[in-house]
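Note to self: keep these together.
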Amino acid sequence: MAEILQTNTEPVGRVDIDPVTLDIIENALRNARYEMDEVLFRTALSPGIREQHDEFPLIADPDGKMVVGQFGLSVPDFLDNFDGTIGEGDILMTSDPYACGAAISHANDWLLVMPIFHEGRLVGWASMFGHMSDVGGKTPCSMPADARTIYEEGVVIPPFKLYEAGKLNEPALDIILNQVRMPEWNRADLNGLVAACTTAARRVGELCDRFGVETYLSALDALLDRNYQAMKVLLATLFKDGETLEFSDYICDDGCGYGPYELKIALTRHGEKVHLDFSQAAPQAVGPVNYFINENLVRMFFGIYVITVADPQILWNDGFYPLIDVTIPEDSFWKPRHPAALNARNHGIGRVFDLFGGLLGQTNPEILNAAGFSSSPHFMYSGHYTSGPRAGEWFQLYSIGFGGVPGRPVGDGPDGHSLWPSFRNIPCEYLESYYPLRIERWETVPDSGGAGLHRGGNGVDVAYRFEEPGTIAIHDDRWLTYPWGVNGGRPGERGRKWIDRADGTREILPSKIHDVPVGPGDVLHFVTWGGGGWGDPLRRPAELVALEVRRGLVTAEGARDYGVVCGEDGTLDERATEELRERMRAEREEIPVFDMGPPLAEILDRCEEETGLPAPRPPVDVRSAEALRGRR
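Structure:
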């Protein structure tokens, strides 16, 4: 455990905070958190951070509890696993999930943790991590789809002092950057993370100067307690005391041919507290889809989801953690054993929110979301220029794809959007200016969003035409199981990927693959999945469905899923629509809360026929298999 070196150890009293002062400090911290983002965006070089904003900041109290920030890391878990002293001017760094208690979850994420001192006393922490587009390893962008150990995924940095007493550890940084393919990107991105944390520390110091340390720390306590009290009310409102709820969803495959992995979670409320139990989840995956998550991050994700759907005006922070108990078994999908591969954990992160939605919606269908774009699919392209002024120069692209956001109680899911609200798309102009490719198509896929009173968002078809030879890599999911609909809404369509080769042939690609060779004239179609629909599609206004036919969001054939009859031009036949809807109402069975699509056994049986890909093999117990090999 870390030892904090303070030159001022006098105890700090607590004072009552008036509402105006609390509001000023709260919003000043919010602004500082967003300023951290902006500092990084203006400093980073990699498109993943500079353009798409794949980074997560926070400002914490002296105990490491997040007061403002974005989800995704845990300072207390990092500090519990750091063996050494921490003083003023130190900045700590790691990329090893196994060495920091899963404060981060794969080696591409470089995490900085910076103590904030004021007049010799620790008053908080600034922390931030960003996804590095490359950290070495056996494939460009460091996300090998078939990795079985973290050693295949690039340089893994143990916790150490990047800065000590304000001085950069240059030899250590040089060693790290010597392992990566784009050291200038990593250096710039890392400098941006340092600048962002330094900016946060400066803003906290200004608040301590303005209001005094006692008032500032008392305000942090008040913000954390306010969150605790609000969550206590929400839990009592949403869940019945003593009742256990269960829900399951799937990760389709692990990149090594095994799947689907069933992710089952149970929730029980006991008085003021809720217990989240992951004990029945799938075993540790063979491939890199394991999501190594610690108990504090489960608490964070659960609280974020509950607050966002039930009362989004609440400032979510770590104050409610004592209300949530968590059980995660060892050697499971959620807590794999070192050195299990982790690079594709993005699918598990997203699926956590679908699981929480499924739990919450069983007793509160009015605030239930469908399953949506619960992932961050990756597309990567790299190689050397073969001609022109850049001949021989290395190029490398890492990018995050978008898809259909689920239908919601408040309305339709957006088309072609991101699960993470702060993420942005890389502009086509940027891609075509800096990389040897052309975007031939970037459009929504009609009917890919599930039908419903509120339609699920459509996925997108992005067609990349390559101009230089190179290799590509893909990370995606939901190619096998469906994004489910709710309250009568239909499931969304699954994702798919293929290459139309320059010689006229077509090659179907799995959702997780790397080192696929491409040449000039080859076109990759990166088609993402749609969101599930919300509510009875027969209640959706027929005029709106016809309008979406005209806009190319729904086809005339797809309009019949809503009981709407119209021409290819969107001309509505009102009488035929009324008759069709009456017939559909009379013939259908009771409307289910969840429509998961066909049974899993049927999906597996029809897998190759429907997707062009073989069905995955059932997951295996990795530890048992290793023990068996050892005996042989």
